[in-house]
Amino acid sequence: MSETPSVSVVIASLDGALHIREQLDSIAGQTVEPLEILVGDDGSTDETLDIVRRFATTTNIPLHLTINDERLGYAENFLRTATAAKGALIAFADQDDVWFPGKLAAAVRAFEAPDLALWVAGWQIVDERLVPVPDRWLHTGFAQRSALAYPMHVAHGARMVFRSNLLTYCPAEGRARSVYGDRPAHHDEWVMFAAHVMGRVDWHPEPLMMYRRHQNAVSAVCPPIPPRRYLLRAEGEALSDGVELAARARSRYLLSRAAAPECQAVKSQLLEGARYYDQLVPRLGRRAVTRMAPERIQRLKGLTASVARGDYRPLSRGGLGVWTLLQDGYGIAR
Which residue, 28, 66, 312, 314, is most buried by CB atoms nearer than 10 A? Predict the structure, then answer.
């Protein structure tokens, strides 16, 4: 890139008075200043709006505050607020986190690669007082690589920086269903889907933000999860019929977008994405059966059969990819 791409920071707020000023200050303190900060408020009843407005008087960064007429929920709030972003890049930000000063600078450097569509920041998990806590979700280098390579995985939105044209080619309105139930895909789930179709996904291994966990957060502190259960995801909806239904819905969505006039420049990518998700459906079904088998020997036999059938061929050839194979093999071996 000949110029530094501009970054719009998008915050979905709701009763965030306790921590939002600290997050806004950390965004204003970036070594690469954002083009703008967009705050979509979902009906706060505490002092959140006053805090945001006071902050706007202390910074030269343009801040745009939108107050929703009705409560949208955090996913819809993020996506709707992002539609007004003017930057070439969009960074989602949770209202209660704290960014390290170099987060946006690292993102901008990463996007010098023209094929990069989505970049995921490393994080440090902290408690209410910003004291580091054990990472219960196995965010190791191996787990990160294998998870982000899996096309149905959902990275946490607060870690995401992505090209804003993803929401031009794959707009949130009319988006396909979620992996996690019969409802529209979450904001981070949708952006990751679009990124897999339109380009490459990468992540930064070093922590660039503090991810604050507390009981009032959208995803409150969870009990420890045994390593094998995390890697196999046997406890979650990701192994239900939802993952196959979501893959089918994604294929149909991409076919419809390929016919849209504004998508003619990327029509071939959208059609290829539709073919990929069609091919993925039976492979996801076999993977779910294998990983939910009660005995290790059954899981091993299922994995071997899937490898023989080509289920783990490269993503570019319609498969689950080698990182997913390594994840599944590791989960069985534990």
Answer: 312
